[in-house]
Amino acid sequence: MNPISLGGDDTDENTIYCCVPCNLRKKDMVFADWLDELEPEQQIKARDIYVRMHGYEPEEFEPHDTKFTITIKL
Predict the structure, then answer these.
(1) 14 and 53 Cβ atoms separated by less than 8 Å
(2) Considering the entire predicted model, what is its pTM?
(3) Does residue 70 form part of some domain?
């Protein structure tokens, strides 16, 4: 639902099953932007699932980079 690349959690609550074409079309889009790509009937269902899974509206997700640094002491 929320892209891991933008700070989404790597949990079951952040997973939604959808068809391959939809998944490929979504890519790293935040869920709120992806909703705009859906038909109105699907938007309602997807938004409801998101709120039930996360406890907040998709527009409340604040994306951020998940870059990190690995330091190896030799």
Answers:
(1) yes
(2) 0.76
(3) no
